[in-house]
Amino acid sequence: MSLLTLLLLALGLAMDATAVSIASALSAPRVRARDALLLAFLFGLFQAVMPVIGWALGHQFEKVISAWDHWIAFVLLAGIGGKMIHEAITHHHPGVPDAPKPGETSARNPFQLGTLAIMAVATSIDALAAGITLPLLDVRLVTAAAVIGGVTFGLCLLGVSVGRRFGKSLEGKLDIIGGIVLIGIGTKTLIEHLSA
To answer: Would you list the domain boundaries of the chain?
Structure first.
């Protein structure tokens, strides 16, 4: 897998966490720098660890699935991408409190440690599934985990900042873009293997 493809994979996986970061900032009455850093750290950490778990699962069964690897990668990545697009269209983000309506205040702080941990797990399930494809895509595990976690960390910081300014208008679009990117990577993998 090229570095560009890995970056695109990381961007696609990070879009869900970025959208949740925007929604969290939008629903909080006040966002401190430490809130943004804690959110970005936890989301980046889980996005880095989950592909490692997925990789271990995929690597364990590599011999069994090697004949079908390109189809499995395509189905998993396209499925994750499709799920992200569907959730964006239906406006569903797991674990995220709804943004307050004008004039209301949020009764729940989205930056509490427990809430952040739940949201970090919820947004990293896609990364777990994508990690299963890593042995099939010929990518170094440490590099992939570092890039996915680092990209997520940076985009979540940006997401919190953007959420305080423009969140409502961007929230659904990010998941759609991320879903399209993942479907594109899955399709590219399938085409490369079929044309080899």
So the answer is: 3-99+109-195
